[in-house]
Amino acid sequence: MKMTIVGIPVAALLLVLAVGCQTHPETGALAPQSTTGFDTENKEKFVLLDPGTQYSITCSGLQEAKTEDGRLQVKANVRNRENRRLQVQIDCQFKDAQGFVTEEMPFQTLILTENSQETVGFTSSNNKATKYTIRVRQAR
Fold this sequence. Notes:
By secondary structure, this protein is α+β, with helices and mostly antiparallel strands. It contains 3 helices and 10 strands, in the order ββααβαβββββββ. It has one domain: Immunoglobulin-like, CATH 2.60.40.3230. 15% of the residues lie in helices and 43% in strands.
């Protein structure tokens, strides 16, 4: 005869308790996990920050230039892929050669009519920037 506790076999109950009670020793410093995952903003020049913009927005072109005094100037053609008016927010993070942010522009509202495209430009305020990431999110 098998033993059960309220309809649960004792062996299954002991297995659940044993797995649930495992401990993870915390000895000293631990290395970060997933350092190459979820780092799109470190690799791409144009990123969409949420599922809504991933579905509705695309970038059909990027343009980069340097001003006479060495500041980075970038433009993005942002396209609405939907047959409805969209309101999104867009900003730009200017980065140095190692990828560290030197300047972050504030998010600005961008209204895109049905299936339209708008060119949005950003210019860094200093000559430290060599890289950038333009970010788009749903309006808040």
